[in-house]
Amino acid sequence: MSSKRSSLLTTEGPSRAPNRAMLRGVGFHDDDFTRPMIGVANLYSDITPCNAHLDRLVIKAREGIRTAGGVPQVFGAPTASDGIMMGHQGMRYSLVSREVIADSLEVVAAGMNQDGLLAVGGCDKNMPGCVMAMARLNIPSIFVYGGSILPGIGPDGKDIDIVSIFEAVGRYQAGSLDEKGVKAIECEACPGAGSCGGMYTANTMSSAIEAMGMSLPYDASLPAVTAAKERETFLAGKALVALIEKNIRPRDIITRKSLENAYTLVLALGGSTNAVLHLMAIAREAEVPWTLADFDRLNAKVPHLGDLKPGGRFVMNDLHRVGGTPAVLRALLDAGLLHGDCLTVTGRTLAENLQNIDSVYQRPQEVIRPFDKPMHPTGHLVILSGNLAPEGAVCKVAGLKTRKITGPARVFDGEEACFAAIQARKIQPGDVVVIRGEGPVGGPGMREMLSVTSALVGQGLGEKIGLITDGRFSGGTHGLVVGHVAPEAWVGGPIALVQQGDLITIDGDAKKLTLEIGEGELQRRRAAWQKPALRVERGVLAKYARSVRSASEGAITS
């Protein structure tokens, strides 16, 4: 190996004898000091099914690294479960955990002078957090997704998933489902290990990372509980040693072209609004110029093809059955929608990886719609602007028949107040619900609103109202919803100035978010507005609130 290996700063020469002594204490042999030292970030935890099996995969990653001539060094990184934290104050820590994960990987890999980094993660923030660290460190790296959960079987024999139980709560509140029915769905929604099954944030980001080239082919679509996922993880360990030998680094892979490939797959599959936030953050860490206009540009030319939940019928396991993510990538490449010359972690280009892959259209299937019969002819994630969102906002229009609404504002300062109003059946068709004070600074932490949106869907209001927030939405959200409204209320964004009963227009086709009042009145309200103090003064949330940037910049802290 080249003397330029970073780990030699830790292990080479007589002065490093104390360092080597400690490494011998964990099993190093003489010849291990001549091999690349590779960090294996293990995001295993038994607090969430997304990550409960990752320790098994990490064993395979270590075997692959050893087989190829590297020395694995396993370390832990934190995971917080979005699904379990949803609907209460715990969700404030969700987006914060992305930054903590990125920082944790940087601390260990940089502090130990590791030559490469392999990360195994499953929950929503694992993926962007790990790839942000990889881009920041710029040492040879590969991400391995833990894989998707299998669908549960509902009382009616149909497939269900985690969003099914959130929506069941709304049905219970509406009186269309009793407690016994809720319990039946609750007990079957998560049948085992793996990340949430629809095209929610975890599967969205794993798909994006595969298209970006930072994981091996099939990484996003192989189910969690399969030997194929174990074999892939073993191969990822071997591939990482090859990357070190070739000195292929994340910033050789993460480029404007590969980010376009990533977002193109997100749009084609109908992925989560969170992809906008996370891809922006990854671009910032890789120092690749990227703005909201780039998302909007791609949205105009990429059709929404995936008939996948939450806007469609199928889950990731169904996509796996019909060829998986590579089969979709091949179809998009054949259609001229991808850059095939982008380098990937295999050491080959995307086009070379897909050379012997059949397009998803080579077999009978209904999961991915044909180009001439798409779910929608353009992308489902629309970047809105207007006097309510001068820095932009993100609207998800997947599967919607109604893409425009003008209605009176129902203003709530925080998610809890809104959820209480929903429980009391105070939201009416035609309303535009405004949830503010949930942005990166205001939350702090930019909470997701799946409990709110699922309850509204469960009450039959999904396409009968509008909803805007300076917070986020879960990948499981559907309905006419607008998130990431920026600037946020806590820093004086126009959403802070909305009053009860103001008319608001959400127009997904015109890409506008408008508060229907005169500029003079808006200025008068702005002059009267007073900046509130931070909600918290100590701890990680306070640190985050003081350092985080706007959602329009990815809500990063570095």
What does this structure look like?
Helices cover 38% and strands 13% of the residues. With 558 residues, the protein is α/β, with parallel strands linked by helices. The protein has two domains: 35-150 and 192-362, Rossmann fold (3-Layer(aba) Sandwich); 383-553, Glucose Oxidase, domain 1, CATH 3.50.30.80. The strands form three sheets. An eight-stranded mixed sheet has the order 7-8-12-11-10-9-13-14. The protein has a four-stranded parallel sheet with strand order 2-1-3-4, sandwiched between helices. A two-stranded antiparallel ribbon has the order 5-6. Helix 18 links the parallel strand 9 and strand 10 (432-436). The longest helix has 20 residues, at 92-111. The chain starts with 7 loop residues before the first helix and ends in an 11-residue tail after the last helix.
Q: How does the SSE layout of this entry go?
A:
Blueprint: H1 8-11, H2 17-24, E1 37-42, H3 54-67, E2 71-76, H4 82-85, H5 92-111, E3 116-121, H6 126-137, E4 141-145, E5 152-153, E6 159-160, H7 162-174, H8 179-188, H9 201-212, H10 227-246, H11 250-253, H12 256-269, H13 274-285, H14 292-299, H15 316-321, H16 324-334, H17 350-353, E7 381-384, E8 392-396, E9 404-413, H18 415-423, E10 432-436, H19 450-458, E11 466-469, E12 481-486, E13 503-507, E14 512-515, H20 519-528, H21 539-547
Parallel strand pairs: 1-2, 1-3, 3-4, 9-10, 10-11, 11-12
Antiparallel strand pairs: 5-6, 7-8, 8-12, 9-13, 13-14
Helix pairs in contact: 3-10, 5-6, 6-13, 7-8, 7-19, 9-12, 9-13, 12-13, 12-14, 18-19
